[in-house]
Amino acid sequence: MNARVNLAESPIVRQLSKSFGGVVKAISDSGLPRAVQELVMIRASQINGCGFCVDMHTKDAVAEGETDQRLHLVAAWREATVFTDAERAALELTEQGTRIADAAGGVPDAVWANAAKHYEGDRLFALVSLIALINAANRTNVITQQPAGSYRVGQFS
To answer: Is the pLDDT of residue 102 over 90?
Structure first.
């Protein structure tokens, strides 16, 4: 697959990346566990079919110590016993928030309540913001057909 746009050469992309970077930093500084962040980004990227982001976030997760077993089971997290209740709540909110157009009324109250039970205040809003952010990144990469497979850990640092 060839990219429709070379994002690395675009002045607007560089400008937007700085803004995205500020949001990523705020989420990272929120206390939301890094493992949860990566799991959320992987799951949303799987749902949206964003190979570029799946490649990036699985590699970043491995670099941060995530296990192969857990990474292989993200797509089947409901049946897997390797995730904590808090991680499962985050993954459920991620799926509901990513598939928001498929559900009249948006995210069900029970899904929100479960996430709120595990993440309070800034961590909960950081989780919601991360779900929104990764969905935006996925859509950008899918629309512009960014190819997967060549990401190197720390490439965008």
So the answer is: no
Domains of the chain, first to last: 33-64+75-143 (1.20.1290.10)
Q: Write the CB contacts of 48 (distance below 8 Å, at least 6 apart in sequence).
A: 98, 135, 138, 139, 142
Q: Are the CB atoms for 42 and 133 separated by under 8 Å?
A: no
Residue for token pair 């400008």:
15
Is the full-model pTM beyond 0.90?
yes
In contact, 56 and 68? CB cutoff 8 Å: no
Kindly report, residue by residue over 43-67, the tens digit of the pLDDT: 999 999 999 999 999 999 999 999 9
